[in-house]
Amino acid sequence: MINFNVPPFTGKEMEYMRQAVENQKICGDGAFTKKCSEWIESRTGTKKCLLTTSCTHATELAALLTGVGPGDEVIMPSFNFVSAADAFVLRGAVPVFVDIRPDTMNIDEKLIEDAITEKTKGIVPVHYAGVGCEMDEIMDIAKRHGLFVVEDAAQGILAEYKGRALGTIGDFGCFSFHETKNVSSGEGGALLLAHEEDIENAEIFREKGTDRSKYYRGQVDKYRWQNYGSSYLPSELNAAYLYAQLELADQITAARLAVWEQYREELSCLQEAGIVELPYVPEHCKQNGHMFYVKTKDMAERTALIDFLKKNGILAVFHYVPLHSAPAGLKYGRFHGEDRYTTKESERLLRLPLYYGLTRDQVSEICGRVKEFYGR
Ligand SMILES: *Cc1c(COP(=O)(O)O)cnc(C)c1O
């Protein structure tokens, strides 16, 4: 049986967690949190990284920092996980969904400007599968209309757009370390801040509205309640686990990219025959092997392929019921323009198993079964 995902494990996690216990500091913002933040800062070039309990929480923090409020509008794709929509709906804002590009499954940058109203405050591009959105165009639109940009880079660690790390191009970037992501602490995330002037407020929102971060650094002699906030810092045990994975992140990424390449090679004959479509990565994007998918003819064919693979011990999955057609999307958001691709393409997309440790033989077996399904 081949699982869809096996959480990454590199070997040093237990040792680092033991060290955290021996340090007698297991709450947040200890030595391992610092190591993780510094690693992310040095590898991405972001001004400041704050570890969080999830990508959803990183996005909530970003939403707090943008100052959006009731009635404000935020543009995002409907083909997305719920986090970005949740974070802004919690502030009373309205997610305005626009269509995706069928090639990358990312927000169609050409449709954003038409969705802007006098209530629009920001744009939340999602780098699907660790493949960058067209950030030059998006940043240009944001600049001309005075909008903020929060990058949902949940799947984007160590991926790049035109040589820049995903998550560092907008005003804020959000990473996920959920167990389904390339590097993981089970649950976890990070907020990347592009602007020096956001750092102090971000630290306060993250620490229950207090200036405890300053107090820890010896910059104030007591910490006090400064603003509203919440608790977004992960425990040191999570950070210790994560640090073991960050240390080997290049190795994990390389292994995932090798699996991705093998899928592409072995399945390209199906694409050439016009039977399925495979992921497209623009020349100027460096992806990170987060995901490999095939797009079938339609939903019925996808269901049949999932069943066929399952009968043969292979677990493949689909995801993202478009947000605008989900109950909360109908209640809190709206779709601007025509849904040409969001629903249609989401119904065709099937993700194949991809995890650190998946072997060449397993990938061949999976590709063999996919080809067998199509009588090849
Ligand atoms: C995984 C994921 C999230 C949520 O991450 P959590 O860490 O589980 O909160 C958000 N957006 C996208 C695109 C994701 O893939």
Automatic annotation (TrEMBL):
CDD domains: AHBA_syn. Belongs to the DegT/DnrJ/EryC1 family. The modification N6-(pyridoxal phosphate)lysine is found at residue 181. Keywords: Aminotransferase, Pyridoxal phosphate, Transferase. This is dTDP-4-amino-4,6-dideoxygalactose transaminase. GO terms for biological process: polysaccharide biosynthetic process. It comes from the Bacteria. Its EC number is 2.6.1.59. It comes from Candidatus Eisenbergiella pullistercoris. The active site is at residue 181. The lineage of its organism: Bacteria, Bacillati, Bacillota, Clostridia, Lachnospirales. InterPro entries: DegT/StrS_aminotransferase (IPR000653), PyrdxlP-dep_Trfase (IPR015424), PyrdxlP-dep_Trfase_major (IPR015421), PyrdxlP-dep_Trfase_small (IPR015422), WecE-like (IPR012749). GO terms for molecular function: dTDP-4-amino-4,6-dideoxygalactose transaminase activity; pyridoxal phosphate binding.
